[in-house]
Design brief:
Structural class: alpha+beta
Number of strands: 5
Largest sheet: 5 strands, mixed
Number of helices: 2
Strand order of the largest sheet: 1-2-3-5-4
Radius of gyration: 15 Å
């Protein structure tokens, strides 16, 4: 697991619902899953990447009203330096869960190998 994934797990650890990378395997009714869906160069100098832009997708699933959880997640992600760039809401008929999808980006200085 990448350091970005660990950073996201740490960021979301106190929001009141478990969070897992890609696939939730726990038993809680309300949970969060996340993944990085894109990573691109944010700035290059002398043909070297200086900054990276990480695009992250979060899904929040719950059988009941999750608005307080969504608010906490947005606050925590913002405090950690992420910027929200999209969100949508849906209902999953097959699982009977409400589903909030959130997308954020984070710009980081590229680490040297």
């Amino acid at each position: 697991m990448s350091s970005l994934n660990n950073f996201i797990l740490t960021t979301l650890q106190d929001v009141g619902a478990p969070a897992e990378y890609m696939n939730y395997t726990g038993d809680e009714d309300t949970y969060i899953r996340f993944f990085e869906y894109d990573n691109e160069s944010g700035l290059e100098a002398d043909d070297e990447e200086q900054y990276s832009v990480h695009y992250v997708h979060l899904d929040i699933f719950s059988p009941w009203n999750y608005q307080d959880l969504v608010k906490k997640v947005k606050q925590k992600m913002k405090q950690a330096g992420f910027v929200k760039n999209a969100e949508t809401e849906m209902y999953e008929e097959d699982t009977k869960l409400y589903h909030k999808a959130l997308r954020f980006y984070l710009i980081t200085k590229t680490e040297e190998d």
